[in-house]
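Q: For a teaching session next week I want to show students how multiple molecules come together into a single three-dimensional assembly. I've collected the sequence lines for a complex. Could you give me the predicted C-alpha cells for the whole thing so I can convert them for display?
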Amino acid sequence: MIDRENVFARLAALIEPFNRKSAPLSEATTFAGDLEWDSLTVMDFVAAVEDEFDILITMNMQAEIETVGQLVDAVGKLRSQA
Amino acid sequence: MTDALATPDAVRSDDLVPHAPRSRDLFAKFDGLIAERHALLQTNVHDPLGVVMEQVLSPTRAIIKGRETILLGTYNYMGMTFDPDVLAAGERALREYGSGTTGSRVLNGTYQTHKACEDALRDFYAMDHAMVFSTGYQANLGMISTLAGKGDYVIIDGDSHASIYDGCWLGDAEIVRFRHNDVADLEKRLRRLPPDAGKLVVLEGVYSMLGDVAPLAEMVAACKRHGAMTLVDEAHAMGFFGVNGRGVFEEAGVEDEVDFVVGTFSKSVGTVGGYCVSNHPKFDVLRFACRPYVFTASLPPSVVATAEASIRKLGGASAKRAHLWKNSRRLHGGLRELGYRLGTETAQSAIIAVMMPDQDRTVATWNALIERGLYVNMARPPATPAGTFLLRCSLCAEHTDAEVEDILRIFGEAGRETGVIG
Ligand SMILES: Cc1ncc(COP(=O)(O)O)c(C=O)c1O
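A: Of course. Below is the structure for the complete assembly, covering every listed component.
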C-alpha cells in the first residue's frame, strides 16, 4: 500500500505542467471547474498518471472522477489491486 | 408536498397548469455555439459550414454560389460517383426493385442486391463473411458495442473517429485509450489488462484529420502478443492502399492477423453505407445480435447496386491508385514549397492537412479559397487533434495534373492575401 499523502504529492507533480492558471491544489480541486481542463488535457494527464503508477484508469472510471481527492482514492484502489 | 403546492400565492396568473415548474429551455446549453456561429457569419462572406452544391458537374467540380468550383474537400478518392457502370447498375436496380426496402435487413429488407453487394465485398477482401450496414458510422457502433460486452475491454486510439467513441459508449465494456499511433503506449496498456479478459483493439488505417497512417504491422503484432482481437477501420484507405485496394492492413502485410475490417461506401466507393468483413467462423451471428444492424432499415437497392458495381471495379483500379498517389505527392510538395505547414512530413494518404494558426485566419483563408473557386474542408476542435485548426484537402483520382497546378496557384494567392504564407 502507498499512503494518501504520497499519492497526492505525486499527482500534484503530474498536475503541475497542466495547471496553466496556477489554481491552488487540494483534494477538493475539480478538474473541469477549477483547473478548467478540456478533454484533450484530461487525456494527456490520465496517460501520465497511468504510467506513473503503472495502472489503467478506464474511461468509464474517469467519468466518475471529478476531484483530485477522488483520483487519489481511485489510484490507491487500483494500486492495491495491481 | 401537497400542502405547500396548494398555497394560492404560489400560483402565477399566467400559469395554465397551476404549480407546474417553469420549464427550463434545453437549448440554453447551445448559446455559446449560437454566438460563435453568429460571429463567424458577421465577419465572413461565405459560411464554411453552410456550403450548398447547386450543381455537381463531376467528381472534382461543382457549382457553388453560381461559380464553378474545384472540389478538394470530398471523400470521393477514387472518383466513382459518375462512373457509367456504377450509374447504370443503380438505375437498373431502382427500376427493378423500387426506391426503398422499407424494412430491416433481418426482416423484409434483404434483397438480391444486398446479397450481391456482400458477395462483392467478400471477393474484394477474399474473406469469408461480409455484413452491410446502413452507414459506416453504424458499422462501428454495431461492431464495437456488440463484440465487447460487460467485463471485456475496448482499447482505442485517442484520435479515434467519433463513430468509434460512440460505439464504446453504446456498449457495456471498459474503455481504455492509448496515445495516438504510439505502439509502445498501446503495448504498455495491453500489458496492464487482466490476461484472461476479452479484449478488442480498434485501429484506423488512415486517420482522417491529419491524413497520417497507423503503424499497423507493429500494432497488430502487439495485439497478438497480448491475446487481443483487432478491428481496423479502413474508411479513408479502402480503394487506395494495397495492391488490391483493401486498405493499409493489406499494404502492411497483416491481412491474416486482423480479425475485423470495417469500412464505408461513402468515400472511395462513392455512395452511402457501411460494412464489416471477417473470417471469424461465427461472424454471421452478429446479424441477429447487433442492434444498429437490426433496428434500422436497410439501404435502398439502388444504393447497394451502385456499391457492388463500384467495389467490383475498385479491385483492379491500380492505374487510378497510381494517379491518386501522384496527385497527393504533388499537392503535398507544392503546398510545402509555398510555405504552408502540413500535418505530415510526407504525403502519407490522399488527405493533406494544412495547419492554420488560429480560427480567424482559418476562416479567412477558407473564404479566400472559395472566392477563387476552390473548396476544401475546414476542421477545428474538438474534431481535430491537439486543438488545431486545419484546412483539409482530400484528393481525387480524377483530379488532372492541370487541376492540381491550379489548386496550388489558388493556395498561393489565398495564403498571401490572408498573411498565412509570405
Ligand atoms: C474513420 C471513419 N470511420 C467511419 C466513418 C463513418 O462513415 P459513414 O460516412 O459511412 O457513416 C467515417 C466517416 O466520416 C470515418 O472517417
